[in-house]
Specification:
alpha+beta; Uridine Diphospho-n-acetylenolpyruvylglucosamine Reductase, domain 2; Uridine Diphospho-n-acetylenolpyruvylglucosamine Reductase, domain 3; Uridine Diphospho-n-acetylenolpyruvylglucosamine Reductase, domain 1; 4-stranded mixed β-sheet; 7 helices; 26% strand; globular; binds flavin-adenine dinucleotide
Length: 356
């Protein structure tokens, strides 16, 4: 076991935003036994345990993490045909976009709009990863986990995961309780691509001359290329040669507010964006940030707002402290102007909330 434990490991390179100090212990988990070892180590040393996937939605403190970071590297990907569908079983350490690519190559529909999202499979149920009119809640069959309290394996059906916009039980009431080891997705063999999102429709027109691209593997690949094109133009694909992609993606989720409050915002601000969803009106966080006086490309020392996306806070050589100060400034201004609380989308692993 000693060989698999590393001490004092810099965490910044393990995240896409490249921030944070060292981890006291890092355990690379290639199987469930390694995960149980990491759990045992955290008990033995009486320190917190943090689960790390691809680090694309994580900001570590400048001081680092005084506990055990379990880096999930479980591998395995299988496809099982079941009538008109295929069950795709992916271990938590599989790279999400590679699973998307492999599925599209087999002509399977259901996750094509989620092309290019960084990170690993195990994190996808946490915040019900989504983009361009699709989210994983639409296709997840079940999620297998290890219960940190007992070390036992527990599987949750889709319904039991209580998925909603950018959230699930794993990010809310069960935060810090379950470690995802495997996710199964039920994809469709009909190969009918999802083209719901106006931006995707417009870009398909531009790239292929029509939105009517039909069905089949080629049509799915067209949607993937279109989505990747859109994402690259917003620095939303991690690319070492694009400094604006040194981020966590969107730093704030779109707030869902009451219809009454939305009316108030509408009355005071022209051109506000929002649409009715379950539980209220979903406002555009990007619009709120811009209305609050923050602009794309704005720099605050060595961190800033991406010139290509008003919700992406980018590290241009700064610190976590600087980054979070900018996030707080934006949150305060939006609260002051609209009485709306912008929630952080990434997970900030800070000393005072270090039990993750
Ligand atoms: C450029 C860019 C674009 C992005 N675009 C999108 C987008 O379009 N849509 C979207 O939804 N997200 C987007 N994101 C956010 C991010 O990619 C996703 O949230 C992704 O699922 C995170 O995966 P990860 O493996 O990197 O997670 P990490 O950052 O490693 O972890 C995120 C959280 O999940 C927990 N976690 C990770 N793995 C496990 C596991 N196996 N078991 C239990 N808990 C676990 C961690 O403890 C942490 O709380 C983007 C990020 C970047 C950098």
């Amino acid at each position: 076991m000693q060989d698999t434990i590393r001490r004092n490991v810099p965490l910044a390179p393990l995240t896409t935003i490249n921030l944070g100090g060292p981890a006291r212990f890092l355990v690379v988990c290639k199987n469930e036994e390694d995960i149980r070892r990491a759990l045992a180590l955290s008990h033995q040393e009486n320190v917190p345990l943090h689960i790390l996937g691809g680090g694309s939605n994580t900001v570590f403190a400048d001081e680092g993490f005084q506990g055990v970071v379990a880096k999930i590297e479980l591998k395995g990907l299988t496809f099982t045909e079941e009538n008109e569908t295929v069950l795709v079983s992916a271990a938590a350490g599989e790279v999400w976009d590679e699973v998307v690519q492999a599925s599209l190559a087999k002509g399977l529909a259901g996750i094509e709009c989620l092309s290019g999202i960084p990170g690993l499979v195990g994190a996808t149920p946490m915040q019900n990863v989504g983009a361009y009119g699709q989210d994983v809640a639409e296709t997840i069959e079940d999620v297998t986990t290890i219960d940190r309290r007992t070390g036992k394996s527990v599987t949750f059906t889709n319904a039991a995961c209580t998925f909603a916009y950018r959230v699930s039980r794993f990010k809310k009431e069960d935060l810090g309780t379950y470690i995802v080891t495997n996710v199964r997705f039920r994809l469709r063999r009909d190969a009918v691509p999802t083209i719901r999102y106006p931006q995707v429709q417009a870009q398909l027109e531009k790239m292929y001359g029509t939105v009517d691209i039909g069905t089949g593997q080629e049509a799915l690949e067209k949607v993937r290329e279109t989505v990747l094109h859109l994402r690259r133009s917003k620095s939303m694909v991690v690319n070492p040669s694009d400094p604006h992609s040194r981020s966590c993606g969107s730093f704030f989720t779109n707030p869902i507010i009451s219809a009454e409050k939305a009316k108030l915002v509408q009355a005071t601000q022209s051109g506000q964006q929002g649409y009715t969803v379950k539980g209220g009106v979903k406002m555009s966080a990007a619009w709120l940030v811009e209305q609050a006086g923050f602009a794309r490309g704005q720099r605050f020392g060595n961190v800033g707002i991406s010139p290509n996306h008003s919700l992406a806070l980018v590290n241009y050589g700064g610190t976590t402290k600087e980054l979070l100060a900018v996030a707080t400034t934006i949150q305060k201004k939006v609260k002051e102007l609209f009485d709306i609380t912008l929630e952080l989308e990434p997970v900030a692993v800070l000393p005072h909330n270090s039990v993750q």
